[in-house]
Write a structure and sequence with these properties.
Largest interface: A-B, 61 and 61 residues
Number of strands of chain B: 0
Shape of chain B: globular
Structural class of chain A: alpha+beta
Shape of chain A: globular
Structural class of chain B: mainly alpha
Strand content of chain A: 15-25%
Radius of gyration of chain A: 26 Å
Order of helices and strands of chain B: HHHHHHHHHHHHHHH
Oligomer: heterodimer
Number of strands of chain A: 17
């Protein structure tokens, strides 16, 4: 059996070389001490030009490489603090805003930050007119008028709006990523075909932030490197290495082995599995997404207020968050996410089948009521829908679930062809008007107007007096009064609109216990890397 | 696929062989072109019948009706179907697979970036499949019905029937999570990965080759420790397939008269099996190996997802979840072309190796 022997030898040799070749891997399973290694799904990034980016991962990157005139304090969610402007003011006319630039700040290139850069940046947003531009153009800027409306003189930037909006509205909008101030000299030196440096900024950064982009491979990774002399204090860790790892179980393994410091893609199952691991900590805070069910008011039964009220009492909000949504969602029954100016926390509705039955009997509709609900094909949504189907059935509503791909369900919704639909909505910028405008404002309820961007229109919902209240709130100059106005609008909206508000999503971040000071930005802001220590 | 064995052999010689080879290549290229055109037609139709509105996928939830209409026109969706198909084909032939809806980048550029990682993984997986599968098949064939044969059969069956997703996670858990023998998901450890991005010239996009060319041997070893597990998992299925096919080809071959003659002449058994019989078995095996290689290039989607391998498979998966049809179809076309090309190449090779098929 000569060949057997040869084969055995070869096998032993292969095994030995396999072990020898891979032994160092076990020793190296540590992240570099001066680097924060994060796993997240970053394939949502379309652009990292701050005046074009409108996706979560992109704005996370921008928050650490650029600054805005007015900033949010990462440690105190929602609190406005001076950014590249050290002070600001609004004139008596209510439309003229002035921002005094902070002296001594430099861009990563070494160029000083001037009022000219700030004016250029805000004008650039309007002229480029990319997806997030509406956050600024809603103040009346157009590519034609923006050079007169946004000007600079010495160390002061002046900003004129078309109407006397609530100052808090203006400041909140300026904290969004689209308000980032870019280095005019550097950006324009890299201009091609009149694009104001847009193509170049898709793979480079030119900001004042704590970090500078060193490498970016779309849907794969990016590397940020700290710069010296950041005006808010140097970053604690020299580098940030972001890896695109969307699979939850893979995230968990890497985290447990210490090959990453932070995972932002762990699922409930993974979190449960890591309980008891002393090396891992899971932080939970609120994110901006709201989950709701809305009713097309073109459907006669669904336009009946008693039917809608019955439905509000026929959903097991608590039961869901205590079982399959545990940790993922928090019961929330208002259109503004907690953390927003004017948000309310009370949750008056809970499962009460008897009450729902009584309301349905009062409504005068034929029972049992047969209704279709359209749902996107994703695990948590179909789970929610099945729970609702179950409790609705107990109250006397036969719910048929129509489960489809995201764009398909959205297409039906925008065409006002649904009955009920289970949906989610994330705010566009950190001001209450972002959600108020879409959940309430419906300027023309006819099919022809095609106001598809408005959730109120999609449901053929006529807001009545809530419309004028919302339009007044965005103009209210006293912030406390404005807050009270939104509270009032939300309560009325919660009880009378075509929407049934259910949940607010949670951010869950799993990290090694040696990592501290990681702020996700909560509902209003993006993630902060420069304060992180390990 | 094979020429009829009883066709009379053409005259041998260099001069007569060359034009025949050219004719063979020409014929292959023609059928390649027809197959690819068919492939384009199928992907085009799929792209049009799926209930995903490509316009909505681009403009998103917030778009106004005017923005929606403008994008629809820009995509040429108002043109008649045949014209849309003609544009699609002429663009694809020029290497333009359209723009990804999600990333707004050229799909062809994306594929160039992602394909090397897949190619590297599938190649090593195929090597694994061949180096383990062929000897296993031969061993099983030389000892039919013994425990060796049974083990090869059972291991092979498991390779066929175990979902690669589950197998991958299990392998990761055991060899990386618990034992720590191999590197984890991803192509390198975090520290090396950053060094690779910042300091190593990326000539081919294949880490093993690029690190070797740069003389970064520590990084090279780290890359090996990362590729071993995904390629073994991926190669397992093809190993199962190759070992089963080898066994059956070998059984057939060992019953041939020339084998008996060789044995009678007193040739050592190992030489009879591993040299004489195996040489003839390799002819049909080429097709089997090429097919399984092509299968790995397209079939690595799940493996890539679990092992966070930035290859074509994970690119297509991410695109699918985002309803990014140009990216999905572009990826499909590339995989299809590779599949067909490999198939044709194996056919050509087969004809060249097997004297009866010349």
């Amino acid at each position: 059996m000569k060949f057997d022997l040869t084969l055995r030898r070869a096998g032993a040799l292969a095994l030995a070389s396999f072990l020898a070749g891979t032994a160092p891997a076990a020793l190296m399973a540590q992240t570099p001490a001066d680097t924060l290694v994060i796993a997240d799904a970053i394939d949502d990034i379309v652009s990292i030009d701050p005046h074009e980016a409108f996706e979560f991962s992109g704005t996370d990157l921008i928050n650490n490489t650029y600054d805005t005139l007015v900033e949010l304090d990462p440690t105190k969610p929602g609190e406005l603090v001076p950014g590249l402007a050290e002070s600001w003011d609004v004139a008596e006319d209510g439309v003229t805003y002035t921002f005094k630039m902070r002296p001594g700040v430099t861009f990563a290139s070494g160029n000083p930050v001037r009022a000219e850069d700030a004016a250029f940046s805000l004008q650039r947003v309007v002229k480029l007119n990319k997806t997030p531009a509406f956050i600024l153009t809603q103040f009346g800027f157009t590519p034609e008028n923006v050079e007169e409306m946004i000007t600079f003189d010495g160390d002061t930037v002046t900003f004129k709006t078309d109407q006397p909006y609530a100052p808090s509205f203006v400041y909140n909008c300026l904290t969004a990523a689209v308000g980032a101030i870019v280095d005019k000299e550097t950006v324009m030196a890299n201009e091609a075909n009149g694009d104001m440096g847009n193509e170049w900024l898709k793979s480079n950064t030119a900001g004042t932030g704590a970090y500078v982009l060193r490498s970016y491979k779309p849907s794969d990774s990016y590397i940020l490197e700290a710069r010296e002399g950041y005006w808010r204090g140097d970053a604690k860790l020299k580098r940030v290495f972001m890896r695109h790892i969307p699979e939850g179980a893979t995230n968990r393994l890497l985290l447990e082995r210490g090959d990453i410091d932070i995972s932002r893609e762990v699922t409930s199952v993974d979190i449960e599995g890591m309980e008891g691991n002393a090396d891992i900590r899971v932080d939970t805070d609120l994110a901006g997404y709201i989950y709701y069910i809305s009713a097309n008011q073109k459907n006669e039964a669904l336009a009946n207020p008693k039917v809608l009220e019955a439905m509000r009492w026929a959903i097991d909000y608590q039961g869901m968050t205590e079982s399959f949504l545990k940790g993922e969602q928090t019961v929330h029954q208002a259109f503004l996410p907690r953390g927003y100016l004017g948000s309310i926390e009370e949750t008056p509705y809970s499962l009460d089948i008897e009450k729902a039955k009584a309301l349905l009997a009062e409504s005068g509709v034929d029972l049992p009521l047969n209704i279709k609900m359209s749902v996107r094909n994703s695990q948590n949504r179909t789970d929610m829908a099945q729970s609702v189907q179950n409790t609705f059935a107990q109250a006397g509503i036969n719910l048929t679930l129509s489960i489809g791909e995201g764009a398909e369900v959205l297409g039906e919704y925008r065409a006002r062809q649904h009955d009920l639909t289970l949906q989610s909505w994330g705010p566009d910028y950190p001001d209450p008007h972002t959600n108020a405008s879409t959940f309430v404002i419906n300027g023309d309820n006819s099919d022809e107007s095609q106001l598809t961007g408005s959730l109120a229109w999609r449901n053929a919902y006529d807001p009545g007096e809530l419309m004028t209240m919302t339009e007044a709130a965005v103009m209210e100059r006293d912030t406390d009064t404005r807050r009270a106005m939104y509270e009032d609008i939300q309560r009325k909206h919660r009880d009378t609109s075509a929407f049934i508000m259910m949940f607010q999503e949670n951010n869950r971040t799993a990290m090694r216990t040696n990592v501290s000071n990681f702020y996700t930005g909560g509902t209003v802001d993006s993630v902060t890397y420069w304060l992180v220590e390990k | 696929m094979t020429a009829a064995p009883d066709t009379p052999a053409p005259p041998q010689g260099r001069l007569s062989g060359l034009p025949r080879l050219l004719r063979l290549i020409g014929g292959t290229a023609l059928s390649l072109a027809i197959t690819i055109l068919g492939l384009l037609l199928v992907t085009f139709i799929i792209g049009r019948v799926v209930p995903i509105d490509p316009v909505l996928a681009i403009v998103g939830e917030r778009a106004t009706t005017a923005q929606y209409e403008a994008t629809r026109l820009a995509l040429g969706l108002d043109e008649p179907m045949w014209k849309q198909f003609a544009i699609y084909v002429s663009n694809a032939v020029q290497g333009d697979l359209g723009q990804s809806l999600r990333t707004k980048r050229e799909v062809s550029e994306d594929i160039i970036r992602y394909f090397p990682a897949t190619l590297e993984l599938a190649t090593i997986a195929t090597l694994f499949g061949v180096l383990v599968g062929v000897p296993a098949g031969v061993l099983a064939a030389t000892r039919p019905g013994t425990w060796v044969d049974q083990v090869v059969r059972i291991v092979g069956l498991m390779g066929y029937s175990m979902p690669v997703f589950w197998l991958g996670l299990l392998a990761l858990l055991v060899f990386y999570g618990i034992l720590g023998w191999v590197g984890g998901p991803g192509r390198l450890d975090a520290g090396f990965s950053m060094m690779f991005e910042l300091d190593v010239q990326q000539r081919t996009g294949m880490i093993l080759i690029d690190t070797a060319l740069a003389g970064e041997w520590e990084m090279f070893r780290n890359a090996i420790s990362h590729i071993i597990l995904p390629s073994a998992v991926l190669g397992y299925t093809s190993m199962a397939y190759i070992s089963r096919m080898t066994r059956s080809f070998m059984m057939n071959e060992l019953g041939q008269e020339y084998i008996t003659t060789a044995r009678v002449k007193g040739m050592p058994e190992w030489r009879v099996v591993w040299v004489h019989a195996l040489k003839n078995v390799m002819v049909p095996l080429i097709t089997v190996i090429a097919l399984s290689y092509a299968y790995l290039l397209e079939g690595s989607v799940l493996t890539e997802t679990i092992f966070a391998w930035p290859g074509l498979g994970s690119y297509i998966t991410d695109a699918l979840f985002a309803a990014d049809m140009p990216a999905v179809l572009g990826g499909t076309v590339v995989v299809g072309v590779v599949f067909v090309t490999l198939n044709m190449a194996s056919d050509l090779l087969y004809r060249l190796v097997d004297p009866r098929a010349r």
